[in-house]
Structures are given as structure tokens and as C-alpha cells.
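Continuing from the previous page of notes. For each protein in this section, the sequence appears first, followed by its C-alpha cells. Read the first protein now.
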Amino acid sequence: MKWLIALLLALFIFGGAWFGYNLVFHEDIQVRKEQRGEITPAPTPDISLPEFQAAAKLRQEGKLIEARDALSAFILKYPSGLHTEEAKDLLGEINVDILLSRIPSPEKEEYIVKPGDVLAKISNKLKTTPELIMRMNNLSGTMLHIGERLLISHPDFNLVIERKSKLVVLLNHGAFFKQYHVLEEKLSPKQPPKVNTKVTEIMAWRDGHRVGFGAKEFIGSTRWIRLGAPAYTLYSVSDSAHPRVEQPPPPQGLGLAATDVEELSGLVNNHTPVTVTD
């Protein structure tokens, strides 16, 4: 009987010690194992996903204004969230959809074509671009008719090129409008930390030759956007919509999807400010 009592006493002593060890030291040991990569920590709950999905659903339902507002609020609420970059990409697409549609917006006004009006004259007068006027009004050519009603927008765009993030960010009146992803980088290794410049030329190429706006070869041409800073040209890289970009890239510059450069070349002009940062 004494041996049974001794056994129960030993179990009580060692069991209490084991319990105390786990209570005091186990948590610290687990943390150290996680730090060494021996244990995978439990995944962090993705609390932002339902809100992102709800905003994306609004876009699918054609509620562009509501989707734009929801995504803008989402990005402000989760600036470093798991879906923030996806939200920015989607917001950019929606912003362009709204800009190039008949959806009412404070920036849009109606303009009636007068005698002597041409696209270049109207765009200079109203601080926009000829191509933006064409795209907003679904024009297939540059010919205008007296009395024709055009929808005109007055964006105030500027570009921010983030080298490390490989992004070209388009701002409108200082606020995020759309971001474009850099697919190729051909820059010298020594770059100043910050460059302030502007767009100096929109270039269009067809069959190895430059073509001008309004020419029949302009539609479907390969676009480049040349900046004032040396070695900075945004050039086109093949994508699903342009599987064969025949124009060779410049010696230096940043390559974007051809569809993105085509879109961007119709939004900026020769006065658009550009900031290049790390």
C-alpha cells in the first residue's frame, strides 16, 4: 500500500512540475520556434476580403459610380491590405470606364462644334487631348460637323513613376486615377533618386515609320510616350490584344503592355508633369 501512495505522490509532484513548465515556458518556446521557422504561425484572418468582393460585385452589376466610391473607401481603410493592389487596379479600370462613357460627371461638359473647329483646336482650347475627345464620343475619324454635340472632360493628369514598385501611377487633380505595371526596365544603374520632368512627345509607329494623329495608320499603331528626362520613354510590349509589336524598343526606357501605353497616350499630353522616384 505504501508503494501506491509513493507513486501517487510522485505523479502529483512531477505532474505539477510539468503543468507549471507548460504554463510558464511553453508559450515562449512556441514563439521561438515560430521565429526560427520550425512552426508555421496560424494565418491572419482576411477581414478585408468581403468588402473587396462587394465592391467588385458593384462593378459587375454595372454600378460604376457606386463601385468607384466603394473601392476608394476600401483603399483608404486598408492602405496596406491583402487586396489593396487589386483594388487599385480595379479602381483604375472603373475610372477609365467612367471617363470614356456618357455617364455624368462633374468634369464633363457638352461642346457644340462651331465653324472652323478641328479636334486639335478644341483640345487646346479646352485643355484636353484630341484622342480623348474621339474616345469619349466614339468618333471613328477626325472629321467634325457644325452643330455636332461633343462631350468634353477636363482632367488634370500627372504621372508618378515608382521605379522600385515598377509602377506608373496616373493622378487626376492629385488623386489616384489608375496605375500601370512596368513589364520591362532598360535604365542605366545610376539614376538620381528623384526626377521632375514632363511628357514631351506622343509617338506612333506603323511598319517602322512614324505616323501622325489623324492618319489612317494611326489607329492600331504602336505607341510610345517620350519624357523630357533623358533615357525615359514609355514603350509598348506585346500583350494579348497586341501579340505582335513590331517596333523594336528604344535603347533605354520602361516597357508597359501595349494596351496600357495606347490608353495612356490618349490621356496625357505634351504638358503633363511627370515625377520619377525610387
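Done with the first. The second protein uses the same format. Note its length before scrolling.
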Amino acid sequence: MSLGPLMIDIQGYTLTDEDRELLQHPLVGGIILFSRNYESRQQLTALTTEIHALRQPSLLIAVDHEGGRVQRFRDEFIHLPPCAKLGYLYDRNPKQALALSEEIGWLLAAELRAVGVDFSFTPVLDLGQGISTVIVDRAFHSHPEVVAEIANAVMKGMRQAGMTAVGKHFPGHGSVVADSHTDVAVDERPLVDLEFEDLLPFERMIHYGLAAIMPAHVIYPQVDTQPAGFSSRWLQDILRKKYEFQGVIFSDDLSMAGAAVAGGPLARAQQALQAGCDMVLICNDRKAALEVINNFGEYQSPSSQVRLMRLHGKTAPDWDSLHADKRWLAAKDISSSLWEDKK
């Protein structure tokens, strides 16, 4: 069985019979976990083990685990600092900031790999312009070159722990006031302005070997009338052809308000995949997921299969071994020191 193009979610700490049936459907290729799926480290490990054992190749298991306010697993995990903390440090000491960023990336990935999570939707490559109501301290910095440098260091650390990185939200959500979770977000700037600002971190990270990208549910009307995640202009002409990106393209959650312009759940999934996404997310709406699964029909994309298979996490130490590792102990102290930094 191949990996299907849908990433869905579940409600609880364990799989129900309905969950198992859905996760074995050929259209499904991955699962995203949320805070509601986490009770303890032991429970989470048992859950990911069961999910991975359901089929071959195993489903991709993902989570939003950036640090700061976006970290789904808290108890027993190191609470990672907001991304902006690394940017503040960069302004004072760039060399130290990049070294610590690499360790934070390693820590983030090592703990997730130790409990069976394949990858996190991180790093955020949006610019911290003080404009977006949803990005805020999730961004590393306001300067695109600095964002790229810090993100690359984080990605290096993640790779060392056996995890690939997913850059988001292409081509940049940091200069839009509206939150695409709840509103239709529009950025009126021309492409040339985006290329010198928001797009630059994505271009740099692609050259550094970024494995996956998630586009924004933002409309850039001077480029296309569709949000980036539904636009072949953005995903095919610009991302694939101009920037020569060869990795995975994930949609953002199709249940978000910013995706509503594409129609109902089935139309959203169809349009996102036709535009160039390899896998689409349908979160917090089982009814929508069922509508897509029951009505989509057969789907085959050999090129997407090749890309998606590269996202499985590499072999990782178990939790106890990790916590005895000197690098983990040092990274834990680094994380604590960044939280204590008053700026």
C-alpha cells in the first residue's frame, strides 16, 4: 500500500476502531497529533507504535511543535522557547545564537523521535514584522537573511536527531494582519516586493536542502486570485520551477477559514492537490475527512510517493537513553537560559 494524499487526526489518547479503519484507507498517508492526543510520554509512545504498525509503508506521524505557545506536548517534554528568543540573541551575538539554535533544533527533534513522531511542522520562516496577529513571537526575526540563518541552524540540529524540517508558511504570512485560521487573509504586495522580503528565507532554505514546505492560506491578488496553497502559479510556476524545490508540499489545514474560498471539503482537497500539494491536511473535522475519503475516488502520484517516503524519521534512541545523553542535558540548560532571557 502506498501513502495516500490525506493527513487526518484522531480525538483521543488511543485509536478507536473507526480510527484504525480510516488510517488504513488508501487515501490516507499521515496523521497529525494534537494536545488532546497527549496524556503521558508512555501513552504517546504506545500510540505512535500502534499507528506505525497499522500498515506498510508506515503512516507519517506529524505534530506542530515549534516552541513557545505552539508546542502540543508539554508535560515531560522540555518546554522550548519561542522562536523570537533566538532572534533576540542573534542581535547581540550572532555566532552564539546560531550555535544555540542548532542545539534547540536537535532537542526539539530528539524528544519527538524518542516517542515515535516522524516530523514537526517547523521551522516558521515568516518574518516577525509585528503585523501578523497569528505569527508574533513564532517568527525568528524581522530580517529575512537572519530568519534564513537561524532556520538553517535549527534544521541542522533536527537532521542530527533524525528528523526533516518543514518550512512554513510559503510565501510568507508575517505581513498580513488577519489570522487565516479564522479569516480570509489578503496581502496586496506585488511579487517583486515579496521576493526581496518574505520569499527570501524560503529561497535560502531550499538551497540549504529543506525537505518540505507548507504554503499559507493567504491570497496575494497581484500574483493569483487563489490562496497560495490552492495556486498552481505559486506552487508549480514559482516554487517548483523558479526556485527548483524538489521536496514535499503540504497544504495547511483545509478546515481553516482561509481555505473556505476553495469551496467545500472535497473541492478544497481536489484543488490543493491539483495545484501541486503532495499531501493535504484535514484537521478537527472528522465529517469533512469522511466526505473527502468517501467521494475522492482513486488517486495516484508516483512523484509524491517518492517525496513523502523521505519524511519518515530516522532511527532514534529511546527516552531513557536520550535523557542520559550529555547533549540532552546541555540542550535542556540552553532552553532554560533562553526562557530566562528578559528580552
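What the second structure shows: The two ends are 50 Å apart (CA to CA). Residues 84 and 137 are 5 Å apart (CA to CA). We return to this in next week's lecture.
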